[in-house]
Amino acid sequence: MTENSPRCLLIARQGAEDREEGIEDHLLELAELARSCGFEVWARRRLRRSVIAPRTFYGSGQLEALAEEAARQDVRHLICDDELSGSQVNAIEKLTGLICLDRTGLILSIFEQRAQTREAKAQVELARCEYELPRLKGAWTHLERQGGGVGLRGGPGETQIEVDRRMIRTRISQLKRELTHLEQVRQTQRQGRPKGLPRVALVGYTNAGKTSLLKALTGEGEPRDLLFATLDTTTRKAWLGQDVDPETGEGSGPKHCLVADTVGFIRKLPHQLVAAFRSTLSEVRTADALLVVADAAHPDLEDHLRVVGATLREIGCEPDGGEAQPRLLVLNQVDRLHRPQKLDLKKRHPGAVQACAVEGAGVQEIRGWLRELIPGPPRPRDLEAWELAEPAAV
Questions:
Q1: Is the sign of the CA dihedral 210, 216, 220, 224 positive or negative?
Q2: Rounded to the nearest 5°, which phi and psi values hold at 235?
Q3: Residue 247, exposed/middle/buried by CB under 10 A (0-12, 13-18, 19+)?
Q4: Could you say which DSSP state residue 53 is in?
Q5: How far apart are CA 133 and CA 156, in angstroms?
Q6: Contact 261, 214 (CB under 8 A)
Q7: N or C: less crowded end of the chain, CB within 10 Å?
Q8: CA 372, CA 368: separation in Å to the nearest integer?
Q9: Is the pLDDT of residue 340 over 70?
Q10: Which residues, other chains included, contact 339 with Cβ-Cβ below 8 Å and sequence gap of 6+?
C-alpha cells in the first residue's frame, strides 16, 4: 500500500442469530478485497442490530458515531459487507459525510481494475450497468421537485432519471450482443482444438492456488497472491506422462490434456457478475472434468467448498442431477499444515489429493487421475456434502 492509498473503514451488521466469529471472518475477507482494490484498511467494526433499518440499513446512531471517529482519523471511505440499495447508500453518505461502497460495488471495482481483454471488459461493464440501473433513484434528488402549472406531469429530475435509464438499457443490450458474438468465437476456438484431448477446468475459491497448479501442470501461468488475479480463461496443454504396459514394459505414447484456468469464486459473489461471466464460465460447464482447488490451510475451508459447490450449481454444473462431470478435489498449500491436520483432512475428504502446487507435491497424483480420462472417464466416486444442494427448509 502506498502513502496515497485512501483509508477506509469496514463495517458489517451482526444480527441476533449471527455468530461473532462468522462476522469477523467476513470482515477479514472484506479487508482483503479492500486491499486488492487499493484501499488502506483503518479499522473493522461489527454493528449489532437485530432488525435492518429500511432507510440506512444500520442504526443511524451507530453510523453517526463511526463518522465522528472516522473524521478524526482522516478516513473518507466506508465499505459495507452487506449489499445495499441505492437509496440506502445515498442516505448513509448524507448522514456520515463518507463515500459509501457496498460489497458488490467493491468487487465490481476490483474486476474493473483487473479486466484486460475485450471480453473481460465487456463482461464487467455489463455487470456494472445492471448493478447501477436500479440504483439511479436518488442520484437526481436535487431536481425532483415537481414543476407547477397546467400540463406539467413531472419535474426535470424524473426526466433525467428516465434518460439515464434508457441510456443504460441501450448499453446493456449492446454489451449482451457483443458477448453473444464473443461466445460464438469461443465456441469456434473450442471446435478448432485438437480432437481427443480431454478438457479440464480449474475451479475454486479465489486465491486458492489455481494458477499455481496450472503452472505446475503445464509450465505456464503467472501466479500472484491476489484476490481475482485471473479474470480471463487461460487454456494450456498439459503433459500427463505415459502409461506403461506391465507385461511388455513398453509405453503407449505420451498423453496430454487441455487445462483451463478460470475466474475464482467468493462468498456473496454478485449475481450480476455470475450472469455476465456466464460465457467465460462456459469452459467449466463444457469441460470433461473439473479440478476443484481449495486452500487446505484456510480456517474457512469447508465454507469455501460450500460456496464453490453452490456457484457451480448456479452456472449449470449439477452433480446431483443427470450425468455428473468427474471431479477431483485438490487441497492445495498443505505445506502450511502439521501432520495431525493433514490426517484430519484425509478423514474429512478421503478422495482428495493433498498438494502443494508451488513445490510440486501431489502433482504426479493429479496427473495420474487425469490420465484416466484417456480414453474414458475416471473412476466414479461418491459426491461430498459440499457438492450437493442443501435440503430446502421445511
A1: positive
A2: -115, 130
A3: exposed
A4: B
A5: 19
A6: yes
A7: C
A8: 7
A9: yes
A10: none
Question: Which amino acid does the sequence have at 178?
Answer: E
Q: Which amino acid is at 33?
A: L
Tell me the residue type at 190: R
> What is the predicted pLDDT for the residue at 1?
53
Sheet with 99-102, edge to edge strand ranges? 40-48, 7-14, 77-80, 99-102
Confidence of residue 146 (pLDDT cuts 50, 70, 90): very low
| Block residue for cell numbers 444442494 | 389
pTM for the whole structure: 0.82
The DSSP annotation for 283-321 comes to HHHT-SEEEEEEETT-TTHHHHHHHHHHHHHHTT--TTS
16-20, 64-68, 123-127, 252-256: least confidently modelled range: 252-256
pLDDT score of 362: 96
What is the end-to-end Cα distance of the chain in Å, rounded? 48
The Cα–Cα gap between 264 and 73 comes to 34
3-class state of residue 164 by DSSP: helix
* C-alpha–C-alpha distance, residues 89 and 10, integer Å: 14
Amino acid (1-letter code) at residue 244 = V
Angle 358-362-365 (CA atoms, 0-180°, nearest 5)? 140
Report the C-alpha dihedral over residues 388, 369, 353, 228, rounded to 10 degrees.
-70
76, amino acid identity:
R
